[in-house]
Amino acid sequence: MIEKLAIKGGPRTVPEGTIKNWPPIDDVDRKMVMAALESPKLTYAQNCRNLEEEFAAWNGNRFSITTNSGTAALHMGVAACGCGVGDEVIVPAYSWSSSVTCVLHHNAIPVFVDIDFDTMNIDPDKIEEAITPRTKAIIVVHLHGLAVDMKKIMDIAQRHGLKVIEDACQAHGAKFNGKKVGTWGHSAAFSFNQNKCLCSGEGGMFVTDDEEILAQAKKLWSFGETRTPLEDRDYHAYALGWMYRNSEIIAAFGRAQLTKLDPYLDTQKKNAQRLAECLKDIPHLILPTEPDGFEHNWYNYTVRFDMEALGHADDAAAFRDKILRALQAEGAGVSVWQKFILPAMTVFQAKNSYGKGCPWSCPHAESVDYSPERFPMAEKHCDWHIGMTTPLRAPNGPEVAELVAQAIRKVMENLDQFEDIK
Ligand SMILES: Cc1ncc(COP(=O)(O)O)c(C=O)c1O
Predict the structure, then answer these.
(1) I want to staple 316 with a disulfide (CB 3.0 to 4.6 A). Which of 164, 273, 307, 340 is the partner?
(2) 71: Cβ below 6 Å to ligand 1?
(3) What are 206's strand-pairing partners?
(4) What is the bridge-based pairing of β-strands 175-176 and 294-295?
(5) pLDDT-above-90 percentage for the chain
(6) Does 347 score more than 80 pLDDT?
(7) In this structure, CATH architecture of domain 27-259
(8) Mean pLDDT, to the nearest integer, of 254-265?
(9) How far apart are CA 127 and CA 137, in angstroms?
(10) Rounded CA separation 235/385 (Å)
(11) Dihedral-angle region of residue 294 (phi above 0 means left; psi in -120 to 50 means alpha; beta otherwise)
């Protein structure tokens, strides 16, 4: 249907104020946060301990340590599996920066592997060719809430004697073969930041089922000590430690939100289903997949535009940006998640992490090739995608998904109006 796009002065499809903020706050949150505020201890104390136990029970893990970010939990995973100077860690070429910079934090060397275009996750079939005698671990990222094929990953790890760290920062509740993410690898990291399915503002969780990994991670978490602030501390640094502990007010908020996580995830799933139904017949869209045996949590509903069919394979990112701006003018609440693949980021291109080329110039390290063109699927995905989070989150319902779909249809059916859009 020919309609004047909002970016050209037409009416916007999603009225201002339609998409509600995340997360919804109610009296459960207010009561628990106020109680924490009035308690004698604001540092790591009983709310943190309870959050650890409640989250581990929810996810099905033996052990958990709450952190001040998902990144902290990732770094703990890297350190806990013994990665250090000159060791290599296999990582996906497309993710959040700290899925990979956590490797540098421990002086180890990230080795990128391209993604699979359909799942957007690390391509398990390309991992073995990246393994060297220096490889110690694999970090898999369950990107946007779709689990990685953990059977393939754990088989590779077992064959080569590697540890597996799951970056489950976006994937609370996602499953592979009926089993939740965070229960497959040797450890996993969850994030509780603003945008995550379990939000406490900032914060995170390290989980593992392995006692030795727990002990190593715990040292890094709190100044190199071996005891938590709830125990009789000896204030002795047994190893190089950071300060990654969570705090009481944040943990209380996290506990309150955790009581509502399952219904939130259910809403998100229903909204994603409605969106998929409304988008399925719009030409030139590549919708996200949920293969058999996988249960998506729909953290981010990511759509790709078929730039070859649209005749824009050569200027894909620029054309995608025009579509994005038109959608934003319609009020659709969409964005580009990452504009750069990871190897193209300056920290990897300039190898500038610790200065003087370290850790790559360390005598224990071998050179690695970060040429972006070695990762064509990640580049293609990066340039072709947009995504959305808040429109699908509670308290938004299917009526919001329908409006967002209407905005996408309007823009895709009126691309000829783009001619004079810069
Ligand atoms: C895939 C992924 N890994 C790691 C992180 C880091 O989490 P945090 O911001 O809690 O450190 C994020 C979130 O921003 C993420 O999306």
Answers:
(1) 307
(2) yes
(3) 65, 189
(4) antiparallel
(5) 98
(6) yes
(7) 3-Layer(aba) Sandwich (3.40)
(8) 98
(9) 11
(10) 49
(11) beta
Residue 165 three-state SS: strand
The full set of domain ranges for the chain reads 27-259
Residue in this structure with the two tokens 């997360």, named with its chain if needed? 23
Q: Three-class SS of residue 296?
A: coil
Cα separation, 337 vs 170, whole angstroms: 13
Can you tell me the distance from the alpha carbon of 348 to that of 106, in angstroms, rounded to the nearest whole number?
15
Q: What is the CA(409)–ligand 1 centre distance, in A? A: 31
Residue environment code for 76-111, b if the CB has 16+ CB neighbours within 10 A, otherwise e: bbbbbbebeebbbbbbbbbbbebbbbbbbbbbbbbb
The full length of the chain comes to 422
Mean pLDDT value across residues 207-213: 98
Best mutation site among 66, 67, 68, 71 for ligand 1 pocket (most ligand atoms within 8 Å of CB): 71
Average pLDDT across the chain, whole number: 97
- State how far Cα 259 lies from the chain centre: 22
Reported for 190-194, long-range contacts at CB under 8 A and 24+ positions apart, including other chains, are: 190/55, 190/59, 190/70, 190/73, 191/69, 191/70, 191/71, 191/73, 192/70, 192/250, 192/254, 192/257, 193/69, 193/70, 194/22
pLDDT score of 419: 78
- pLDDT tier at 231 (50, 70, 90 boundaries)? very high
Whole-angstrom Cα distance, residue 48 to residue 245? 9
pLDDT tens digit sequence for 279-311: 999 999 999 999 999 999 999 999 999 999 999
Ligand 1 pocket, mutate which of 67, 74, 98 (most atoms under 8 A from CB) = 98
DSSP 8-class letter at 321: H
CB 162 within 8 A of CB 156: yes
For range 102-119, the mean pLDDT:
98
Q: What is the pLDDT of residue 420?
A: 73
Please check the confidence at residue 421 and state whether its pLDDT lies above 80.
Answer: no
| pLDDT tens column, 29-47 | 999 999 999 999 999 999 9
Structure-token match 């916007």, residue found: 12
